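Re: beginner question about structure tokens

> Can someone show what the tokenized structure looks like for a real chain? I only ever see the sequence side.

Sure, here's an example I had lying around. Input first:
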Amino acid sequence: MATAYPGALDTTGSQLRTDIASTDDLDASGKQHDVMHVNVHGATVALETKLGLTDSNAVNKAILVGSAASTTSWTTSPTIGGTVTLDGSGGGLKMDGLDSADANTLDDYEEGTFTVAFTAGSGSITADTSYNTCSYVKIGKVVHIQGQIGVSSVSTPSGALNMTGLPFASANGLAQSADWVANLGTIIDLASDPSGGGSVYGRITNNSSSINWRAQAGTSAGDSTIADLIDAGTWFWVGGTYTANI
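And the corresponding structure tokens:
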């Protein structure tokens, strides 16, 4: 009986012959019709034994898995009892915005770049077109961003300072401002130091596609109007992680 599945086809040892001609005698040595019938049926039984029984019709976008001992089924949500290994060069696991409703399901992976711009309470700040792009990696809802942004020119900016263009809006609706994040970078080569001293940092509030830049010094309430500190030649160093709304 054929038993070599799936390692090799039974074309050797007179199991399943592929060289029988229409003019061959049905009782020629190694080509006897009874031997051929037994071997063909044996191969079918062996195949059924390997694949299991029950669902035999393919299902769209499903895979055939072992659902019990000697039993298989087609499913679009397979459960694998072990480690899945992908070792093909150039391959990988593609998850492109599957948007699962299950909070514990990894449903997205994405890499890319985004172009930023600036807004001020009044006046304008223009990004250097040679240094206005950041990169991002999104894994599930977690987005990591990084880059170096230059300023080419300003026109009497003042008030709040924001960097627009984030690739995804930030999370929204989490309790106790859990959808906010800070310390996403710093700014160097300012026109002047922040009033009261302290450091400059970027933050993302809830449901936002911008980084809001502020200054903070010790126990002070902080300065949310630092656009006037930006000048041509100022540099923004961006780096950090936030949670997206999708």
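Each token stands for a local structural state, so reading them left to right follows the chain. Residues 1-7 have pLDDT under 50 and may be disordered.
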